[in-house]
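Trying the structure run again after the queue cleared.
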Amino acid sequence: MVLSNKSLHFIIATLVACLPIFGLANTLQDTIKLNTAAEVSQETHAEPTDLKSKIDAFKKHHVLDAHEFSLFEDEAAGKHYGFPLPIILWDNGVHIFSSAQFEHGHSVAESNGNYYKLGHDEKIYKTDAAGTLTGNEHHPSNAKPLDFSITKSVFTLMIVAFLMFILFTNLAKSFAKNGGISAGFGRLFEPIVLYIRDEIAIPNIGEKHYKKYMSYLLTVFFFVWFLNMFGLTPLGINVTGNIAITAGLAIITALITNFTANKNYWGHIFWMPGVPTPMKIILAPIELLGVIIKPFSLMIRLYANIFAGHVVLMSLIALIFLFKSWIGGSLSFLLSFALSTIEILVALLQAYIFTMLSALYFGSAVEEHHHDEAH
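Done. Tokens:
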């Protein structure tokens, strides 16, 4: 926990130090037609031309989810290199088409007579054939269909889930086939599995109850770790830096904790033994609030560390292009390399912390209290 706080302090301090250099992010927006309540006007929003604006726009789009994988682009030729992802919408029926129809936000997509446009916020809006968006350019008031698309984050989740299934299925098969001795590539993860069991699950949950939580603890550890490692690749993946993902993981931990808790757990929340009755009435709401705060802290800790790490790392890399000198570029490169190394450790550390805290919550939920012995 001490190491985690130091890492967080370092990331926040570096981010704050970089804020005066980069300022606020400028928007990356193509030509959009805006209808106001008073009049209809057309405003042209050109691509960012100065270097700082381009860097800010790139950082903003890097940390956001997207409906396509954009690996790199040739600015001179105006070409984007990557691959589209499927768009799945519900708008009086199912509409399925490729995100390539949006042409990176420059065009309007048509499906069964309906027209859709990709907004600046990566949300899909229903529009007309001309691509008219009403209201504020950043938050249009157009109707939004239900979006079930496979975005960049969803695609990465599927890849990680498939990778984990293959790795650990083969590990389990080899373990059973060779009489308790693992074989193959999966054996590299066997020490980690044993560590989670012996150093996280058993000490925090207890010998009696730890087995029913092991499947979740192992899953969430490797799931978060693999996602964090994918986020360090040049693919622009920021899954665990998406608060919706971390919120989902935190909610699952909270549900498991509360639905598997024994009566002692709830008794110490609503009617603590050995405490005067007036104090029980005062402390009960506070203890109940703790039930909500615990998963909230899980959510924010993982989200803030990963999100801030991405922003700081991209800011340091951007300094190479801003300084335009061998001294500034070399220093920026060294700082970026050092931070990338730290981020590899942070990727593992955050998976460990999330798993450790989940085990602590599970242990508190099934702990058996002996009040007579205590008195």
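Confidence is low (pLDDT under 50) at residues 1-5, 7-46. Worth checking whether this holds up in the mutant runs.
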